């Protein structure tokens, strides 16, 4: 789950991190009133994506009238596919220096990774590509955590002067918030050193692990609602993990890993997957609903069914799909690949009840589906 800037800063504030004064506004009139109370402000589009400044979604306003005009210009924009319905009207800061700080999940080290750079306010991807030495990295042993000594070691030699102490404290706070809230990413760009010596986050990007939201009920309501297509809304209502794509090869597989592998092989074979939908766990009991969901996408020209069972029995899953096929009686060509526990019975069932011969190799089934979709 992604959080807009104001929601991310709200999470920081709840954790005791000092953030700039600001108000969330849904109209030019509200923005004008906020600026009248705050003083000179920055008016910022609230969408769960980056590049807002480059898109014209961040404007300085010295007066309430300018704040109203800025809000009027920003509200209704579309940034990164998200319509702007609200703006954050936030006090302007007397910035002395800008830094970059982040804590994120790092697949390479299989651990949290703390990042820091003295080049804040810029695209961190550009900094990492052109000046990698300016981006400090520290993998964290989650058994030990990240404390003040670790922060000081990460900042060693950066010539931060008196800012080194508050910056180190901020890094420790950010790691604490990241861990306490099951975050996948907590990014501050820029992290600002103000003229009065304070270090404050002027932006905040927060992403929380969807699988951990049941533990984060107190902040889940602050997260940005993901825009869903009509079919994705239907999938959510059915408690099926469905993502609609722009391809023409429908995919039905058990388990998220096998589903993604199937999609990758579809692409490798020159095709385009039409969806992500895995029916592992108890979802196989919704075979008819799952099949109908996949085939309701008018772009689907063929279907690949890929089952691989260990603890899950492929004959049970195949039985659900067979029943669904008989119920819905679709006309698109379907190609099966079945391996693992119960595969002999599953293959026999598909062959005898649907008159379809499953493929021995997953790659062959998928290649045939890609060809049929053409």
TrEMBL record:
<dbReference type="GO" id="GO:0006099">
    <property type="term" value="P:tricarboxylic acid cycle"/>
</dbReference>
<dbReference type="GO" id="GO:0005524">
    <property type="term" value="F:ATP binding"/>
</dbReference>
<dbReference type="GO" id="GO:0005829">
    <property type="term" value="C:cytosol"/>
</dbReference>
<dbReference type="InterPro" id="IPR016102">
    <property type="entry name" value="Succinyl-CoA_synth-like"/>
</dbReference>
<protein>
    <submittedName>
        <fullName>Succinyl-CoA synthetase, beta subunit</fullName>
        <ecNumber>6.2.1.5</ecNumber>
    </submittedName>
</protein>
<dbReference type="Pfam" id="PF08442">
    <property type="entry name" value="ATP-grasp_2"/>
</dbReference>
<dbReference type="InterPro" id="IPR017866">
    <property type="entry name" value="Succ-CoA_synthase_bsu_CS"/>
</dbReference>
<dbReference type="GO" id="GO:0042709">
    <property type="term" value="C:succinate-CoA ligase complex"/>
</dbReference>
<dbReference type="GO" id="GO:0046872">
    <property type="term" value="F:metal ion binding"/>
</dbReference>
<dbReference type="GO" id="GO:0006104">
    <property type="term" value="P:succinyl-CoA metabolic process"/>
</dbReference>
<dbReference type="InterPro" id="IPR005811">
    <property type="entry name" value="SUCC_ACL_C"/>
</dbReference>
<keyword id="KW-0067">ATP-binding</keyword>
<dbReference type="InterPro" id="IPR011761">
    <property type="entry name" value="ATP-grasp"/>
</dbReference>
<feature type="domain" description="ATP-grasp">
    <location>
        <begin position="9"/>
        <end position="217"/>
    </location>
</feature>
<keyword id="KW-0479">Metal-binding</keyword>
<comment type="similarity">
    <text>Belongs to the succinate/malate CoA ligase beta subunit family.</text>
</comment>
<keyword id="KW-0816">Tricarboxylic acid cycle</keyword>
<dbReference type="GO" id="GO:0004775">
    <property type="term" value="F:succinate-CoA ligase (ADP-forming) activity"/>
</dbReference>
<dbReference type="InterPro" id="IPR013815">
    <property type="entry name" value="ATP_grasp_subdomain_1"/>
</dbReference>
<dbReference type="InterPro" id="IPR005809">
    <property type="entry name" value="Succ_CoA_ligase-like_bsu"/>
</dbReference>
<dbReference type="Pfam" id="PF00549">
    <property type="entry name" value="Ligase_CoA"/>
</dbReference>
<keyword id="KW-0460">Magnesium</keyword>
<keyword id="KW-0436">Ligase</keyword>
<keyword id="KW-0547">Nucleotide-binding</keyword>
<dbReference type="InterPro" id="IPR013650">
    <property type="entry name" value="ATP-grasp_succ-CoA_synth-type"/>
</dbReference>
<keyword id="KW-0614">Plasmid</keyword>
């Amino acid at each position: 789950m992604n959080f807009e800037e104001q929601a991310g800063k709200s999470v920081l504030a709840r954790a005791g991190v000092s953030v700039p004064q600001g108000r969330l506004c849904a109209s030019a009139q509200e923005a004008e009133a906020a600026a009248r109370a705050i003083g000179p402000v920055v008016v910022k589009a609230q969408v769960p994506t980056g590049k807002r400044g480059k898109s014209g979604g961040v404007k300085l306003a010295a007066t309430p009238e300018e704040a109203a005009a800025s809000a009027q210009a920003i509200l209704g924009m579309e940034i990164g596919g998200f319509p702007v319905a609200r703006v954050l009207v936030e006090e302007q800061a007397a910035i002395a220096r800008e830094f970059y700080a982040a804590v994120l999940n790092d697949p390479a080290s299989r651990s949290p990774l703390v990042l820091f750079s003295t080049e804040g306010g810029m695209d961190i991807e550009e900094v990492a590509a052109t000046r990698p030495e300016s981006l400090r990295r520290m993998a964290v042993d989650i058994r030990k955590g990240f404390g003040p000594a670790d922060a000081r070691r990460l900042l060693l030699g950066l010539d931060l002067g008196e800012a080194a102490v508050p910056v180190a404290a901020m890094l420790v706070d950010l790691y604490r918030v990241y861990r306490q809230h099951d975050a996948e990413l907590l990014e501050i760009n820029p992290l600002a050193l103000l003229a009065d010596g304070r270090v404050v986050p002027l932006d905040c990007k927060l992403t929380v692990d969807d699988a951990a939201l049941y533990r984060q009920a107190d902040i889940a309501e602050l997260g940005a609602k993901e825009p869903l297509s009509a079919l994705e809304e239907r999938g959510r209502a059915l408690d099926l993990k469905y993502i609609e794509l722009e391809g023409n090869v429908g995919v039905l597989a058990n388990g998220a890993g096998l589903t993604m592998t199937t999609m990758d092989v579809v692409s490798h074979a020159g095709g385009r997957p039409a969806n992500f939908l895995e029916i592992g766990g108890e979802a196989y009991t919704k075979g008819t609903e799952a099949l109908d969901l996949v085939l309701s996408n008018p772009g689907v020209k063929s279907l690949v069914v890929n089952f691989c069972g260990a603890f899950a029995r492929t004959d049970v899953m195949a039985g659900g799909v067979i029943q669904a096929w008989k119920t819905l009686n679709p006309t698109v060509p379907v190609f099966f690949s079945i391996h693992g526990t119960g595969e002999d019975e599953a293959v026999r069932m598909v062959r005898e009840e649907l008159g379809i011969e499953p493929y021995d190799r997953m790659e062959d089934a998928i290649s045939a589906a890609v060809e049929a979709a053409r």
